[in-house]
Each structure stands twice: as C-alpha cells, then as structure tokens.
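pasting for ref
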Amino acid sequence: MGAHSSDLSTSASPTEEPSGTGDSSEMALVAYDHPGVSDLFAVLAYGEISAFYRLAEDARMAPSMQGRVALASMAAAEMNHFETVVGALSERGVDVYTAMDPFVRALDEYHASTNPSTWMEALVKAYVGDGIAADFYREIAHTLDPRVAGIVREVLAETGHSEFVVHEVAVRVQESSQDKARLMLWGRRLLGEAITQAQHVLAQRESLTDLVIAVSGDLNGVAALFDRMQEQHSKRMRVLGLV
C-alpha cells in the first residue's frame, strides 16, 4: 500500500491507465467527503514519507555517483509528494500524523520484510515494488471525486530516473543468469508482501475498505483489482528482463 512507493511512483513505463471496472463517465464517483478519503490520503502520505527515508538509505549502496544521485532525486520527489498530501489532509481538517498512525505498522512491516541487501535488489524494489502500490491507487482513482483523484494522480507522478533503473537491472541480468534468477524470486516476494500488507490494511480500516468496495462494486471486484495489479507487476518484470 505504500508508494510509491510506493513507484515510487517509479512505476511509469510499461503500464497503461487501468481500465478498472468500467468507464468512469458511467460510474458514480466516490464523494469528496467519503470517510475513506482521509484514510486514503493518510496511507498515501505514510507511503511517501517512508519511501523518502528508504530511498535515501538505499542510495548509499550505489556503486556510482550516478546511482546515488538517481535515488536521492527520487527521494526528493517523494518528499514533495508527501507535502502535497499533507496539504490535502489539512484542507479536510485532518492532522497528518494522527491520520497516518493506523498505517505505520503495516507499511513498516512491508519494508522490513523487503529490505534490499544488494544494489540490484534496491533498484528492483524502487521500480517494481513501489509500482505495485501505485497500481492499487491508480485502479481506484478513476472513480473518486475529481478533486481527490487529482491529488492521488499528482502524488503518483513519475519521480524520474526509471530509465536509469531499467538499464542498470537489464544489463546485470543479461550478464548473470544467477543474478537474474535471484531477482526474479525477489520480484515475486515484493508482490506477495505488498498484497499481504494491503489486505491487512483493508481488514483494519473499515472506511477504507468501504471506499475500495464502492470503487470495485463488490468483493469480486476487489479480487479482480488485485488480479490486475499482478498483471501490471508481470509487465514491469518483463521490462526489467526478469521473465
């Protein structure tokens, strides 16, 4: 559930705007004042700030100045996105720190269980792992009130340097079949952990669950949403040469 990261929001690239469950012009929008919107902004906020810290830390593993600058630039973009969500929550009269608190444990557990041990793992997580979270938010954005959807899309905007990540990983996996096999397993682990933590968050926050069900139509729609996230994950892995 954390961007970002999260993509990061580094998720740009092979994905198209998800079609969701239908054309947004034919679907009822989730109201601006739906109680789940504040939860949505809060989990986005914590996803962005935790992505900032993680990227800044992972940058230290870079073997080159170019790599350190690339991840540091991504981290700076995540901080800007965090400030955007803080502003959105403030407009709703919501304190960001109080709002984020229910999501800290789940997102921290995701990052703890997917802590990269190598530079290549850090890059794959930056590109693939955060893309998983971005896909989730994009899937639901198209049926939100336009003011809410605009914030979500702004926060998920490309942080840049995805071409750098793709090149670095693609070159490595072409050179080493052992690294390729290890990173394929790593990618599957990122997907599994992300979906597990997303389900935990939804189980704990009724208002956020109500919002996702309103977007998806019913529980079958929620299951289909996760299926589409897995399809997008497969596309990203293919771009990296991890198939």
